[in-house]
């Protein structure tokens, strides 16, 4: 028994004889994109002008030319058929494009809702954080409060140093200065912001 070359194994299917183009899976959205392009073109002023020019040329050609050169005589049946066929295909293409646009709008709306929800959550979080900071600031000492406390302490220290006046040797304290100098220091401490 002679085995043919390329016959392959019997437990595996044969490779398909279709062309590479036929085996390639078609993209599901390709027809919808083409339909949208056509519908977009049909809805332009350029298309209306182009169609009007074609109809005028068609009618003029079939009226002016001799009878044997005309391809669509007076009732223009062929022109009516062509325009009806174009309308029959244009309507479903436009509807398909509208349905795709509605689907995109729904997806965008859902995405916008989700983003708005996240922004609302972020805003609420920031509002809570700001409220917490306000509470903490209320508990903090202000600059004016600290200044008044420091002035009080400085006055107490100055009053204490004035009361001591002399050191243990019976001499005058070093660096304390005279009474006038002490009064100047007190005044300067009170004037500080």
Describe the structure.
With 193 residues, the chain is mainly α. The chain is 70% helix and 0% strand. It has six helices and no strands. Helix 2 packs across helix 4 (77-139) and helix 5 (143-164) packs antiparallel against helix 6 (179-191). The protein is elongated. The model has no long low-confidence stretch (mean pLDDT 83).
Give me a quick take on this structure.
It is built from 6 helices and no strands. It has helices spanning 20-23, 30-42, 45-64, 77-139, 143-164, 179-191.
The computed structural class is: mainly alpha
Task: Note poorly predicted spans.
Answer: none
The coarse silhouette is: elongated
User: What is the C-alpha radius of gyration, as a whole number of Å?
Assistant: 48 Å
Give the mean pLDDT. Answer: 83
Topology:
Elements: H1 20-23, H2 30-42, H3 45-64, H4 77-139, H5 143-164, H6 179-191
Helix pairs in contact: 2-4, 5-6
Which short descriptors sum up this protein?
mainly alpha; 193 residues
């Amino acid at each position: 028994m002679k085995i043919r070359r390329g016959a392959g194994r019997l437990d595996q299917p044969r490779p398909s004889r279709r062309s590479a183009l036929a085996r390639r899976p078609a993209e599901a959205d390709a027809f919808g994109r083409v339909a949208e392009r056509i519908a977009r073109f049909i809805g332009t002023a350029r298309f209306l002008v182009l169609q009007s020019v074609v109809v005028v040329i068609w009618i003029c050609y079939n009226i002016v030319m001799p009878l044997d050169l005309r391809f669509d005589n007076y009732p223009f049946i062929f022109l009516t058929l062509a325009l009806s066929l174009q309308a029959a295909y244009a309507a479903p293409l436009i509807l398909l494009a509208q349905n795709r646009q509605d689907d995109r709008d729904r997806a965008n709306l859902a995405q916008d809702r989700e983003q708005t929800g996240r922004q609302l959550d972020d805003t609420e979080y920031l509002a809570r954080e700001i409220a917490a900071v306000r509470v903490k600031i209320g508990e903090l000492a202000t600059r004016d409060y600290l200044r008044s406390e420091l002035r009080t302490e400085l006055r107490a220290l100055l009053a204490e140093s004035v009361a001591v006046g002399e050191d243990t040797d019976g001499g005058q304290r070093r660096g304390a200065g005279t009474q006038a100098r002490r009064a100047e220091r007190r005044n300067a401490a009170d004037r500080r912001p």
